[in-house]
């Protein structure tokens, strides 16, 4: 019986994870700034879907690059779990950092931005919300500039988007040793 060689994985390359996370944050900030400059109505269902899909694509692409780098350090082999961990660390850090863009935008660049967002929301969805629920629905816009709100929303975005992006990146980037050949997905 032939034994399968095992390759001890190298330590996780945190320098690459941090560098890729910064690249991800910059890419997401650039996309958000573009949406801001072009003054898109981000409250529509289609704009929300486009924003979600572009963010997922950017996050997954950066996570996959990080997974592939770690896989090369590990001798061309990386388990799904390890790939997920590397991808999640990258996307969670990058998404968390990119969340501070909203704080800077609302507090330093455009303090009227929350008011415009509230108006867009009411224009788009106001007639579909019962009168007694409108104030509750728009109250979040008034909190956009608070640091605690940015930290909380960035944390949950990092968890949710990080989970989605890293699952996709791990599924694509994993490679395991195969007894029938050098490596298989």
List key phrases describing it.
185 residues; mainly alpha; 2 strands; elongated
Structure description:
The protein has 185 residues and is mainly α. Helices cover 71% and strands 4% of the residues. The protein contains seven helices and two strands. The chain has helices at 14-37, 45-73, 80-98, 100-109, 113-125, 134-142, 147-173, and strands at 176-178, 181-184. A hairpin with a 2-residue loop joins strand 1 and strand 2. The protein starts with 13 loop residues before the first helix and ends with a strand.
Task: Write a short abstract of this structure.
The protein has about 180 residues and is mainly α.
Note the total helix count. Answer: 7
Distance between the termini: 23 Å
Overall mean confidence score, pLDDT: 88
Look at the helices and sheets and give the structural class: mainly alpha
Radius of gyration: 20 Å
Q: Which helices and strands appear, and what pairs or packs with what?
A:
Blueprint: H1 14-37, H2 45-73, H3 80-98, H4 100-109, H5 113-125, H6 134-142, H7 147-173, E1 176-178, E2 181-184
Antiparallel strand pairs: 1-2
Helix pairs in contact: 1-2, 1-3, 2-3, 2-7, 3-7, 5-6
